Amino acid sequence: MKKRIGVLTGGGDCPGLNAALRAVVKTAMTKYDYEVIGFKDGYKGLVINNFIRFKPGDVSGILDKGGTILGTSNRDNPFHFMMKKDGVTEYKDMSDRVVENLHMHDIDCLVVIGGDGTLAAARDLARKGVNIVGVPKTIDNDLNATDKTFGFMTAVETATEAIDKLHSTAESHHRVMILEVMGRNAGWIALEAGIAGGADVIVIPEIPYDIHKIARSVLQRKNEGKSFSIIVVAEGSRPIDGEPVIKKSEEESHDSVRFGGIGNKLAYDIERLTGIETRVTVLGHLQRGGRPIPYDRILSTRYGVAAVELAHREEYGKMVSLKGNEIVSVSLDEAVGTLKTVPPDGELVRIAKSVGVSFGD
Ligand code: F6P
């Protein structure tokens, strides 16, 4: 009997998911003559048995497409699965159902493409005896056991392009322009796009900011004859004497808090302290959508191929990972739990400071 691989994409989408799926399906079907079953909308498809049997043509023409042809969800943890009964919301452990469905489909190995929440559930399924291999994705780049998650560099490209565009209008109107980007606990997008786009101030969750120091650096620029400033702020940032700005809470999600609004808070304070007109752009889900840049297409292809190779060698309970320029594997235990945040005294922060960027610290 042919071996069979299951695959799903979980968590928030990001550019490169389709490229990773394509690599998994092509390698499994053409190199090893496996069958591949795709479960729809993350773990939900495994719980309710919503699936497709891949044919090789199904992944043709998707390398450059954003999103995921399988669908995804950042709220369907099989160990804490939301169900509605008589209009009442309740949460149930549906992991046994997942195991049953995998047996029913004769799945030899499940490839799970996801971020911290999706991979934490993968680790827990592995502890229940499921043969599982993880692939790291997220625009946040906050997974600890890999140098890069795919999707991140495309998000940085999108944010950098936004900064480039904000520069010209900031200069014309002599304004402060604030760009709020994603980044819950980790400020990687703000930091890298901020450096690449030549931001004057970068605000990240790892370095709580002093609004007076930010205002001072904006005024200093004005005194030097630079009539505008560009500020990039990660959504999860907070002032030294305050809290992050939370938009809402979504109970059923792994990371229940939804941030949003720190850009407006900064704008209000900066205008008040400097008298300079300030405008805010919230980049939001534009960072998650659209075509992956070549870097992410290549990385997700490398990961997808490596995941099938792990499955073929029956090396389960592992996640593929980038270390330097090598694709390696790490245990799922190592891969989840601790997030990779920006070291406040790391090289990127130091070089940004060397070229005059203020972090408000
Ligand atoms: O984890 C990826 C991410 O895009 C975060 O940067 C952001 O805070 C969150 O997802 C947004 O989630 P949602 O798509 O549910 O609004």
From TrEMBL:
Residues 4-310 form the Phosphofructokinase domain. The active site is at D140 (proton acceptor). Mg(2+) binds at D116. SUPFAM superfamilies: Phosphofructokinase. Coiled coil: none annotated. Its main location: cytoplasm. PROSITE patterns: PHOSPHOFRUCTOKINASE (PS00433). Its cofactor is Mg(2+). This is ATP-dependent 6-phosphofructokinase. The lineage of its organism: Bacteria, Bacillati, Bacillota, Clostridia, Eubacteriales.
